[in-house]
Design brief:
Elements: H1 7-61, H2 80-86, H3 89-121, H4 128-135, H5 142-152, H6 160-165, H7 168-174, E1 190-191, H8 195-201, E2 214-215, H9 218-242, H10 246-254, H11 259-270, H12 272-287, H13 291-296, H14 308-317, H15 322-352
Antiparallel strand pairs: 1-2
Helix pairs in contact: 1-15, 2-15, 3-9, 3-12, 5-9, 9-12, 10-11, 12-15, 14-15
Length: 353
């Protein structure tokens, strides 16, 4: 039988536990205080240079500051700046261009990046040379890319010269046809217009002052952006493929799946988290794109390649319409937030579950 501790022994044990607990509490509080003090400078910097300036930008967008002379009185009605901005044909074109550019850029970059990753994974393109060649454009700045591709798509000195060198235009002329000389980034035409179809579903679309469709001048810009970012997408997919066990591939082969079916039905579905991450990153890039478009084509003919970031730059530093530029900045922030916040919230739920 176990010995029963006496009353004095129990009292001594309780006192010991209480003493240890009492010593731990100050230590825990000290550690929490140290952590708070270490993070306090970051909190202060973020509060000032992020949230304070966001709040300031929002206030300016609601004010009467429309000239070099500062006027921070609120407009009447307070949302009038946003009404003026959304009724401007240029800003409507900017929103159209953002949607079109995002769809073209994301589709081309993901498809090309995934294709390159599959070719490298299948050893069709073997060696680190191809990996470095495909990834090299990602190391360049958008300014360099824009300048280079502006020359490539220049109607007079770029890719159109190959039509002359290869004799294609001479052949077309002999056949009684017009020679090929696309305008590329200087073409103001908008194809596949959906104004009438959209107006039948959404009557307010009839009041839009821009053609809703695909500006042809925007396609070369999407191609240039794809060229730069497809290597990044390729690297992301290659990293994901490296984590897939060979046993999964062998099991699929034993079941009679072809190599194409293995990628389509097994590997690509497993890479869904990678695809989501890539899509969020590319979407974030496309929504705030500035330097590539600015150096390659600018606003373009008829605002065919204009984007909200260029609109903000010109309103703030050229037209001195500070409230209008601030309003466009807030719209860009909201667009990026609609992408990033759900993604971060989803990741947080997965980590806590």
């Amino acid at each position: 039988m176990s010995a029963i501790p006496e009353e004095g022994q129990i009292s001594v044990s309780q006192q010991t536990v209480a003493a240890v607990t009492t010593r731990k509490k100050p230590l825990a509080m000290t550690e929490r205080m140290q952590s708070f003090l270490l993070l306090l400078p970051s909190f202060i910097v973020i509060a000032i240079f992020v949230y304070f300036f966001i709040g300031t930008t929002l206030y300016i967008s609601l004010s009467n500051w429309r000239t070099l002379k500062r006027d921070l009185t609120l407009r009447e009605p307070v949302y009038q700046t946003y009404v003026d901005m959304f009724t401007m044909p240029r800003f409507q074109a900017d929103l159209r261009n953002t949607v079109v550019f995002t769809i073209l850029f994301m589709t081309l970059a993901i498809v090309l990046g995934l294709s390159l990753a599959i070719l490298l994974d299948r050893k069709v393109l073997a060696g680190t040379v191809f990996r470095n060649v495909f990834l090299f454009p990602y190391a360049l700045s958008f300014v360099v890319t824009g300048v280079a591709w502006r020359w490539i798509f220049n109607p007079e000195t770029g890719i159109n010269l190959f039509f002359e060198i290869l004799g294609i235009n001479a052949l077309l002329t002999q056949l009684g046809m017009e020679p090929l000389k696309p305008g590329w980034i200087t073409n103001p035409e908008v194809v596949l217009q959906v104004n009438d179809a959209l107006a039948r579903v959404w009557p307010a679309a009839a009041n839009l002052q821009v053609k809703l469709g695909i500006p042809l001048a925007l396609i070369p810009v999407a191609i240039a952006a794809t060229w730069q970012l497809s290597g990044f997408v390729m690297a992301m997919y290659l990293g994901g493929m490296a984590t897939i066990s060979n046993h999964i591939r062998e099991a699929a082969r034993i079941d009679g799946a072809s190599e194409w079916q293995i990628y389509r039905r097994v590997i690509i579905p497993i890479l869904k988290p990678v695809t989501v991450s890539v899509a969020v990153i590319l979407l974030h890039v496309s929504l705030k794109i500035f330097d590539l478009v600015f150096t390659m084509s600018g606003v373009g003919p008829g605002f065919a390649t204009d984007v909200p970031a260029i609109f903000v730059f010109e309103m703030m530093f050229k037209a001195t319409r500070y409230n209008l530029g601030s309003a466009a900045s807030i719209v860009m922030l909201v667009l990026v937030g609609l992408v990033i916040v759900p993604y971060l919230a989803s990741n947080l739920r997965e980590e806590t579950s």
